[in-house]
């Protein structure tokens, strides 16, 4: 039986309660909408089942907990994580909201490979069911969301992957795609979905009302 989403499972220590100022947030917001439109981050009661991040000069910037990735995202929908203490289960952050419930997962993977600059975590039954056929690695076991165990399982899989691989599946949970930039991480997930989907390819063009310029000028 799937675990019920209950929000973040860690404590958050805010260094500042303010909006994040980073030009790349626009691009991350665009990828959030693409993931939502493609069904890679389906809706659930707490927002969207998915969380995207990219490495910053200090830490990384990630979608906030409970964010609906298909909405008009603002700077307040993103959080900069500057530290994660796994022993104390506490994250240090800058932002107006709690960071994603999978913040520990992202932090753990970034710590293992400095070349990884973006991590996209999504959910797709098609990718999960066809992982073996696609040659996508799968973690040995499943674990609860937001847990250190899940992060360690992901880390073990990352360590054993071929250097040419950039996507793997969290058993009975979701998938992780990553890359040297956001485009690499996003395109890898799209490619996996296209290989198993019977739906025709469609444009990633965002409707005019959802264009970055229409973000109410809140992302600067």
Class in CATH?
A: Alpha Beta
Q: State the shape.
A: globular
Q: Enumerate how many helices there are, as a single number.
A: 6
Helix percentage: 25-40%
CATH H-level superfamily: Class II aldolase/adducin N-terminal domain
The secondary-structure class comes to: alpha+beta
Number of beta-strand segments: 10
* CATH architecture descriptor name: 3-Layer(aba) Sandwich
| Radius of gyration over all CA atoms, rounded | 16 Å
Determine the N-to-C terminus distance. Answer: 42 Å
Low-confidence stretches: 205-220
**Share of β-strand residues:** 15-25%
**H/E element sequence:** EHEEEEEEHEHHHEEH
| CATH topology term | L-fuculose-1-phosphate Aldolase
- Report mean pLDDT, rounded to a whole number: 89
Strand order of the largest sheet: 1-7-6-5-4-8-10-9
The major pleated sheet works out as: 8 strands, mixed
Number of domains: 1
Describe the structure.
- A hairpin with a 2-residue loop joins strand 2 and strand 3.
- The strands form 2 sheets. Strands 1-7-6-5-4-8-10-9 form an 8-stranded mixed sheet, sandwiched between helices. The protein has a two-stranded antiparallel sheet with strand order 2-3.
- It has a single domain, classed as L-fuculose-1-phosphate Aldolase (3-Layer(aba) Sandwich), CATH 3.40.225.10.
- The C terminus is likely disordered.
- The radius of gyration is 16 Å and the shape is globular.
- Helices cover about 25% and strands about 20% of the residues.
- The protein has about 220 residues and is of the alpha+beta class.
- Helix 1 runs parallel beside helix 6.
